[in-house]
Amino acid sequence: MSVKSCEKIENSKVVLTVEVGAEEFEAAVNKAYFKMRGKINVPGFRPGKTPRKIIEQHYGKEVFYEEAVNIVLPDAYEAAVKEQELTTVGYPQVELENVGPEGVTFKCTVAVYPEVKLGQYKGLEAPRAEVKVTAEDVDARLKEMADRNSRLVSVERAVEKGDTAVIDFEGFDNGVPFEGGKGENHELEIGSGSFVPGFEDQLIGMTAGEEKDIDITFPENYTPELAGKPVVFHVKVNEVKVKEVPALDDEFAKDVSEFDTMDELKADVEKKLTEDRTAAAQRAFEDVLMEKVADGIEADIPQEMVDLQAQSMVENLKRQLASQGISYEQYVQFSGGDESKILADAQEPALRQVRMDLAVEALVKAENIEASDEEIEAEMKKIADNYGMDLENVKKYLRTEDVKEQVVREKVIKLVADSAVAVDPVEEKKEEKTEE
């Protein structure tokens, strides 16, 4: 194999002209013969026993050329890419120039990683919100904690909004029970909106042991079998429950934390809220900075890079849906049944991600950023601690290269953020409404 030429063209593409010599191509033709001879019939010979020369005399010397090209081309292309030290993107477009006893010559047009020129990445400005935690914020968090530790208790009164009604129900369409319309001892929070519109409101005022029929019309966007249909639900209230929220006192603090007093718990809640909001403000600050770095690069980005990133995003979507028990086909159907639109919608975020990745890689090279073995180990331990896992188990599931990439990326972000200037966020001016 020899590279006759390597020409750079627009959109970060390269045209490689590669020549495979007679001896190498002859070896490929012979391989093609052994591979294909069992499928070629020649009168007077058993299948697979016909000599190569006889087959070529019968069908022409070119009979094995196509398969020989398929055999020789991948290795020749890979060797050419390696020789020219190219970092390719996607698959090449191949054009055969000539094929014969003297060998084969082909052209490969392939996208390569673009050259990247960094813009400004030090001394950038970005807004960073001032972190404030008020007494109201602390009280709201404590109320959330109390709600999580609440319990449902039975009451002897009629159902009110906010109560939980324990009900038996069965739905009928023109007197016939329909699938999925029956339940027993179902706990339904009144006002949650988890049932068909109008159902929960009609339970208000009912008492334990009471039964009645409820008229409901299903929404037009419901399942096709019931969409827009008027149905009747026969409902029996078995029990009425209310949420009993614990008092916010020292006993509560002892039950939900390692603290003995409510004052200590409040101080801890305030501290954690401050830490969380400070971290969130810093992440938002860094995100804006890195977006500016990505926007500032100059690069002739090939469409193939964007397409691959878009496809990767769709594959990630499929995994997320699968984890939620939803098939991708269902999602496509719910989204209008157009898979091409999903890919098209992914193009813009894919381009942003490609620019970001290119910016980070360029910064790594410009600043000679590396990750030591100790830093990689520390990152793995951090991950293990965050997930409450054993370090050795984390090492089994995580690739060292992926962790190394994460460490390097965090160093890049820190380098940009450490030299940046934080400014006050610009408050949006609210338009005053004037009476006409």
Describe this structure in words.
The protein folds into 3 domains: 2-112, Trigger factor ribosome-binding domain (Alpha-Beta Plaits, 2-Layer Sandwich); 151-244, Chitinase A, domain 3 (Roll); 260-423, Trigger factor, C-terminal domain (Trigger factor, domain 2, Orthogonal Bundle), CATH 1.10.3120. The protein is extended and about 100 Å long. A hairpin with a 2-residue loop joins strand 7 and strand 8 (176-189). Helix 5 packs across helix 6. Strands 6, 7, 8, 9 and 10 form a 5-stranded antiparallel sheet that branches. It is of the alpha+beta class. The protein is 44% helix and 22% strand.
Give me a quick take on this structure.
The protein is α+β, with helices and mostly antiparallel strands and 436 residues long. 44% of the residues lie in helices and 22% in strands.
Radius of gyration from CA coordinates: 34 Å
CATH-assigned fold name of the largest domain:
Trigger factor, domain 2
Tell how many strands the DSSP assignment holds.
Answer: 11
What is the CA–CA distance across the termini? Answer: 82 Å
Please tally the helical runs, counting DSSP H or I stretches of 4 or more residues.
13
SS-based class: alpha+beta
- Supply the CATH architecture of the largest domain: Orthogonal Bundle
Helix content: 40-55%
Question: Which CATH first-tier class of the largest domain would you pick?
Answer: Mainly Alpha
CATH homologous superfamily assignment of the largest domain: Trigger factor, C-terminal domain
Overall geometric form: extended
Strand content: 15-25%
Low-confidence stretches: 428-436
What order do the helices and strands follow?
A: EEHHHEEEHEEEEEHHHHHHHHHE
Number of domains: 3
